[in-house]
Design brief:
The chain is an all-alpha fold. It is about 75% helix and about 0% strand. The N terminus is likely disordered.
């Protein structure tokens, strides 16, 4: 009896075709001006095998864009790039650098000795470093643009802000440069802890929080993220420390109130909205909603919270029916008011109802939106 293996040539061919197609796609990505620039306008292999001069011309064209830059000194190049505020210009520079990089990669792979020799004469030794500098400059401009966007996007931006970096362009004595090395990491840590303090705050409708956020956004919209000397560093570090300390105070206040509601952030927010409304009414000589004192507000809202939580726990789909849930909330508000002998008019009860309903619905939507 003879034994052997059955070879699935069909699958081998399919795998080969798929791999080969992916490889060719990656190679010809080089010919996509949107991604890497136009280095000749012809098919990749034709440019190298049939008309290598087209590849060379593409490199010359790309280098023309870079003519006013020092391509032999990465430090000088970095200084030149840092002075550019026009993002379109930076994108054009990036496109040229990418074109040159791709041209050299292709020449090394497919070119003959003559082409390789000619290309070597056009080599930019520090090209990866220079490309990184341009990318960083574009990123800095993107960061400034992000700070200029509308209020609707600021919560989204906050999540991305952790990755923002300051660019240090310090020049000085060796001792100053040594200090700058540690300062860069320290400033990054101060930035990240401040961003985290913003993003983890449990009540982002708090007027104090909004004021801090707007001051923070305005400062870095104006100052940007470039550090030219140690005085700049000290100024930015102090600004971050000041904002962070104020956010910590706000956090402590929120946490203290949170314990009154057994950790339920929904009623922390409702409590604060009532207090804010009362403060506004005091200025107009009007009476308080519910009561003037925090302890009385806690008792009132805790009664409502316990009743609503029991109903939601027994029948969670109650939150799917907005009108029914709002009616349920109003019933509990009236019941708690009567129980404590508090008197409010219909508009006051509607104000409280809107605040409570909003918190429950937001929590429900945040929990089940992705399901």
């Amino acid at each position: 009896m003879r034994y052997g293996y059955v070879v699935d040539f069909a699958n081998i061919k399919d795998n080969f075709d798929a791999t080969n197609q992916a490889y060719l796609h990656e190679l010809n990505r080089f010919n996509n001006p949107e991604e890497t620039g136009d280095i000749g306008g012809k098919n990749l292999i034709e440019s190298v095998i049939e008309d290598p001069q087209a590849l060379l011309n593409g490199v010359y064209k790309a280098r023309q864009v870079l003519f006013n830059f020092d391509l032999n000194n990465a430090e000088i190049f970095s200084t030149q790039i840092s002075s550019i505020d026009d993002k379109d210009h930076l994108i054009e520079i990036r496109k040229s650098l990418l074109s040159i990089r791709e041209a050299f990669n292709i020449a090394r792979t497919f070119g003959d000795d003559e082409l390789k020799t000619q290309m070597e004469q056009l080599n930019i030794e520090k090209l990866p470093v220079m490309l990184s500098e341009v990318e960083h400059a574009i990123s800095n401009i993107n960061q400034k643009e992000a700070f200029s966007t509308s209020d609707e996007t600021r919560h989204i931006i906050n999540e991305a802000m952790l990755d923002i970096e300051f660019k240090f362009r310090l020049k000085g004595t060796p001792e100053e440069m040594k200090i700058a090395t540690g300062a860069e990491q320290e400033l990054k840590e101060k930035w990240q802890r401040t961003i985290q303090a913003f993003t983890t705050n449990i009540d982002q409708d708090d007027p104090t929080y909004i004021t801090l956020r707007e001051a923070f956004m305005q400062r870095f919209r104006e100052h940007g993220f470039i550090i030219d000397d140690l005085a700049d560093y000290d100024s930015e570090a102090k600004a971050l420390d000041d904002i962070y300390e104020k956010l910590l105070v706000l956090k402590k206040q929120n946490n203290a109130l949170r314990t009154k509601y057994n950790g339920d952030v929904k009623f922390v927010r409702v409590h604060k909205r009532i207090k804010e409304e009362n403060a506004s009414r005091h200025q107009e000589g009007k009476s308080d909603i519910v009561a003037p004192y925090d302890e009385q507000i806690v008792i009132f809202l805790s009664n409502i919270k316990n009743s609503i939580d029991d109903k939601v726990y027994d029948k969670s789909d109650i939150l799917k029916k907005d009108a029914y849930f709002e009616k349920t909330v109003m019933t509990q508000i009236t019941s708690s008011l009567n129980k404590l002998n508090f008197s409010t008019d219909h508009n006051d009860r509607l104000f409280i109802q809107r605040q409570i309903s909003r918190q429950y619905m937001n929590q429900y939507n945040d929990t089940y939106a992705a399901v």
